Automatic annotation (TrEMBL):
This protein's UniProt keywords: 4Fe-4S, Iron, Iron-sulfur, Metal-binding, Oxidoreductase, PQQ biosynthesis, S-adenosyl-L-methionine
Pfam hit, one: SPASM
Name the record gives this protein: PqqA peptide cyclase
Database matches in SUPFAM superfamilies: Radical SAM enzymes
Gene assigned in the entry: pqqE
Location of the Radical SAM core domain: 2-217
Name of the top EC class for this enzyme: oxidoreductase
Catalytic activity: [PQQ precursor protein] + S-adenosyl-L-methionine = E-Y cross-linked-[PQQ precursor protein] + 5'-deoxyadenosine + L-methionine + H(+)
Length: 366
């Protein structure tokens, strides 16, 4: 018997007012006209609750661009789920925020790009820093726990001390300092985003001391970039093991980037979620360890990291069954080493937080 998923990531839309170059959305974004409707999402939430889902994360793109987001939050809350809004905060006006609170929204995660407007607005592609600060304060005022999510990369990681000062000023309950994962747009922009080893060491040192200072007030989560790790992450806690993603067009996925893989689709307009989760070829493809090639097949860590990330293997090697090239035992580790060597070839940009970061060579998300 396969256990049900714990969490549903509902990607309501790919549309977004920002155009961050590290976006993990697909290179081919779903058009607004192809998005599934409110009734489809209500049915997805009903079926998710029947499967045992306890947490719904409303995400995108920018979920606030969907007019029905308040209705969907209310529906999920009515099913007894813990509800989380993952937002850039653009569009989180006071009336909208109050409606979401009345609908039963439990938690808000706001993304920020940097600690100050010039760099933040450049990375976001639009003037947005002031709105984000205002929205973060509103989240606290309305009594929600506030999580700030900061995607770290070569262009902003040297400002981590100032970013943590801003986190403290906003009285965030939690901050996720998440080094960029190189999928989709981020992989395309990797050479402008991957930090040097010196930058990472500096960031880790600053984070360690901030964690001490903020203990008891703010949880500081630091996600290392897996290109610098010896072993891969057990992506999503395992393929089809704990989490389920439903995209704007109704396709269900075991993770955020599986749309790139040459696997059969499973759409919520054609199948119910229980069949998709338990029986679809897509969700069954990499469950457990039987699918593994060597060296994973005979490795003592195969139940720990489950061979790493299938999407990373596919995006770097063209073969989704290969060992994740991040693993130092992988036959393809040279691909990751080459990117790391390139990122360290010039020592990285200046680490002075006073100086503006170098102009990035970024391909913005349309
Ligand atoms: Fe994990 Fe496979 Fe590397 Fe072993 S060989 S550590 S199972 S990725
Ligand atoms: Fe798809 Fe890791 S993102 S398995």
């Amino acid at each position: 018997m396969i256990d049900g998923p714990l969490g549903l990531l509902a990607e309501l839309t790919h549309a977004c007012p920002l155009s961050c170059a590290y976006c993990s959305n697909p290179l081919e974004l779903t058009k607004r006209s192809a998005e599934i409707g409110t009734d489809d999402w209500r049915r997805v939430l009903d079926q998710a609750a029947d499967l045992g889902v306890l947490q719904s994360h409303f995400s995108g793109g920018e979920p606030l661009l969907r007019r029905d987001v308040v209705d969907l939050v209310a529906h999920a809350a009515g099913l007894g789920m813990y509800t989380n809004l993952v937002t850039s905060a653009i569009g989180l006006s006071r009336p909208r925020a109050e409606a979401l609170r009345d609908a039963g929204l439990d938690h808000v995660q706001v993304s920020i790009q940097a600690d100050e407007p010039v760099l933040s607005d450049r990375l976001a592609g639009i003037s947005s820093f002031d709105k984000k600060m205002e929205a973060a304060r509103l989240v606290k005022e309305l009594g929600w726990p506030l999580t700030l999510n900061v995607v770290l990369h070569r262009q902003n990681i040297d400002r981590i001390g100032a970013i943590l000062d801003r986190v403290e000023e906003l009285e965030a309950d939690r901050v996720e300092l998440a080094n960029t994962q190189y999928y989709g747009w981020a992989l395309r922009n990797r050479s402008a985003l991957l930090p040097s080893r010196a930058q990472l060491e500096h960031a880790e040192e600053v984070t360690r001391s901030a964690r001490e200072r903020l203990r008891g007030r703010t949880d500081v989560i630091y996600v290392i970039p897996d290109y610098y790790a010896r072993y891969p992450k057990p992506c999503m806690g395992g393929w089809g093991a704990r989490q389920l993603v439903v995209g704007p067009e109704g396709n269900a996925w075991p993770c955020l980037s599986a749309h790139e893989l040459p696997l059969p689709r499973a759409n919520v307009q054609e199948h119910d979620l229980a069949w998709i989760w338990r029986s679809s070829p897509l969700f069954s493809a990499f469950r457990g360890t039987d699918w593994m090639p060597d060296p994973c097949r005979s490795c003592e860590r195969r139940e720990v990291d489950l061979g790493g990330c299938r999407c990373q293997a596919f995006q770097l090697t063209g073969d989704m069954t290969r060992t994740d090239p991040v693993c130092h035992l992988a036959p393809d580790r040279g691909l990751v080493d080459a990117a790391v060597a390139e990122a360290n070839s010039d020592g990285g940009p200046s680490r002075s937080p006073q100086e503006p970061a170098q102009e990035p060579v970024l391909v913005p998300v349309p």
